[in-house]
């Protein structure tokens, strides 16, 4: 079982964290997200795991933290889709490096799909 994000009510923070539960040993494990940018913390979102990927869709994200001095905070309705891949391949990591380091395609013999 996987749980992503949610609101920590003691300080009203929306956490972009992913946890995995192993029912055989009754232990929760915090997973490390790797990639360009992970999904933002949110609540009231939908998610499903299919094969080696978790899909996270929509939800409410905090754009202004609640402040007692101001007396309000602000939430934003997210209309996005995030895919978390649990089975990276070398081709995926190469594509990530091309994007992260903004490598120019013309200088290298990169495959077209990268």
From TrEMBL:
This is Kelch domain-containing protein family protein. InterPro entries: Kelch-typ_b-propeller. SUPFAM superfamilies: Kelch motif. Gene3D superfamilies: Kelch-type beta propeller. It comes from Wuchereria bancrofti.
